[in-house]
Amino acid sequence: MVDTKSNNPVPNFYRASAEDFKKIPGSPIAYWVTDDLKRVFDNYIPLSTIIDTAQGMKTLDNNRFIREWYEISTNKFSIFHEKKYSSHSGGLKWFPINHGGDFKKWYGNNESVINWENDGLEIKLLAKQKYNSITRTVTGIGNYFNPGITWTAISSSNFGVRRFFEGFLFTNAGMCGFGENLNLNFACCLLNSKVSGKIIKFLSPTLNFGPNQIQTVPIIDNPKLRENINSMFFNVINLSKTDWDSYETSWDFTTLPLLSPEYLSPTIEASYQKLLTHWQEMTTEMKELEEENNKIFIEAYGLQDELTPDVPLSEITLTCNPHYRYDASKPEEELEALLRTDTIKELISYAVGCMFGRYSLDKPGLILANQGETVEDYLKQVPHPTFRPDDDNIIPVLDDEYFPDDIVGRFKNFLKIVFGEKTLSQNLDYIAQALTGKSTPSPEKVIRDYFLKDFFKDHVQRYKKRPIYWMFSSGKQQGFNALIYMHRYNKTTLAKMRTDYLLELEAKLDAELTALSEDPVKNKARISKIKKQIDEMKTWDELLNNKALALIEIDLDDGVVVNYAKFKGLVRAI
To answer: Which phi and psi (to 5°) does residue 359 adopt?
Structure first.
């Protein structure tokens, strides 16, 4: 510890007592720590007095045991069942797991699930086989399914703690703390404060945040302090959870915010402006709450001379906040443009989900999300749909409208139903402008090009390289492309794709070639393109036919990586 007023006989040279270092748990050589911070360690009790911190399990084979929740069937996922807190519940295989993730405070990063069927039998058998011990790697068992707080074990940026509730397990990538709910709420607020941030920096300068470092954070535990932060805690959790659940990669997603009654207007532009105003208000409110949280702890710890409560917008970890979601150094106009573009892409993604029956305009939440489900299963839940899903789970994505269920035609119909037919042209213009950043005389072409070139790439990124909509494609000539929804795939899907779409398209292109040949000079470019496409499709057809005859089965429990590989050569690379 350093007395900077009297302890430096020469510039930039300081003396510090070895006894002072011992007062900080772990005795870090943090010579720059001030007397005020030293006093904090002298006077206050460690966090371990109110919560237990723990390191989670090592599965020894994450590829085998861990999935993203959207890869699997929901009828095997605990979150969608009443008996979600026990792996002895009949038929349940997948349970949510805290598994680290990006810098995120308060709530979120809830995407991973673990195979804990029959009380983790397979994981325990592997541990026994490898080490002749279960508890050596399957650690923290006593806290499985308990509520707690979690943080990412290794971070390249800031430290953030998230609250979670009953039903979770945890790995060594997602460290956790457990205890009484009020203690957990208090710890969450403390650990997300600037006071804790400063302390943790010298407790763990390597950005490796283990349970030992976190449990030594000193706390002031008194009724007045708890009272001050209690209501604030619930406000920040509600804001953070609302934000997290607004995106379809949350298992609590119900509907697209843009289409919610409080924002929905006849035009997408007006709807977006209402939603944007709401998002800005959410971000402002969260910033004020976090600064209030900081102020409470700074004053309680007597660190007013060292810290200010201010929180930069880039650390307000709401996805609707462009300063956090993107590079905060970009100009404000560019950040707003990125947010608008992504919001439109989310609208398109949701529309595709409705086309496949994963979602419905008539019922919130997931509809078809189990292996092999059909339109008949959809109609049992939504008997009279406003927007009917695709019957055969094959949606062509082509450079023109060759089929009644062409994806651009279906998307236009979606927009008519949601926003009204009168504003269709205006809405198509707005979408095209959001996708390209400029006005265009051919908005439908822009939208078609997006589906052809960029939709699948965006989908892969959104779903962290675990796409649930698969793009079957003949190749770079874009002769034939079609999307399917993996949960609705069955062993006859490829045969139907071949006979009802690929061969039918070849016949239509042959007929178009015949018509174009009447003026070969004028139509030279188009004739050349079609010929290349037909050649590509014929080569691709050989593989498609072979795979169709093989009657390939998939098992959603195996995950996207294993199942997608069965169609190599037919699908776009991830």
So the answer is: -125, 170
